[in-house]
Write a structure and sequence with these properties.
Layout lengths: L2 H24 L1 H4 L15 E2 L15 H7 L5 E8 L16 E6 L11 E2 L4 E7 L22 E10 L9 E2 L3 E6 L1
Antiparallel strand pairs: 1-2, 2-6, 3-8, 4-7, 5-6
Keywords: Fimbrium, Signal
Main location: other
Subcellular location: Fimbrium
């Protein structure tokens, strides 16, 4: 055989092998399934620290003359401390300053404060954020940042005079709170 015939035979064998590979690739989708993947990346929610979820906040004793003349008792501060928060920067906000919205829910006295139960009369409970903005029962407070070192949201509570005739005695109330953040 001459070298020309050998080249032609080698070319035909190579072309046949390549053509069968191409044909196999065209039919590959018929032998194998397709797989589409999708998913989500979630940011874990904050956890309310132990001791912050259910607090008993003792309020300073207020006399009837003080309640009548000053209209309110002293401020008692309390905080809701959070843990396991992932602080992620969003839309130009500082990563360590997410915005939190708190809603306090409980019995209302009808004047924007929380009603008290017990023997005492003539007083209600006022809750405010650290800027002094009052919480109205069931209505969200304006958003506030959080101290990234203590991870605590600061609030204040005080007894305030209402329209009832003051009467000495013990009082109590139970409030719930809801936190939203972004």
């Amino acid at each position: 055989m001459t070298p020309l015939w050998l080249c032609l035979i080698a070319s035909l064998l190579t072309t046949t092998a390549v053509a069968s590979d191409v044909k196999q690739d065209k039919n590959m989708h018929q032998r194998f399934g397709a797989l589409n993947l999708s998913g989500s990346i979630l940011e874990p929610s904050c956890t309310i620290a132990a001791g912050s979820g259910e607090q008993v906040i003792p309020l300073t004793m207020v006399s009837i003359p003080m309640l009548v003349t000053e209209g309110q008792g002293p401020i008692e501060y309390f905080s809701i401390r959070l843990t396991e928060c992932t602080l992620i920067e969003q839309k130009g906000q500082e990563a360590d300053n997410p915005r939190f919205i708190a809603t306090f829910e409980g019995p209302s006295n009808g004047n924007g404060n929380f009603a008290l139960s017990g023997e005492a009369r003539g007083a209600s409970l006022a809750i405010a954020d650290r800027y002094g903005r009052r919480a109205i029962p069931g209505k969200p407070l304006p958003p506030v940042g959080i101290d990234s070192k203590s991870m605590a949201l600061l609030y204040q509570a005080r007894i305030v005079k209402n329209n009832d005739i003051p009467k000495a005695g013990n009082y109590r109330t139970t409030l719930r709170f809801k936190l939203e953040y972004y």
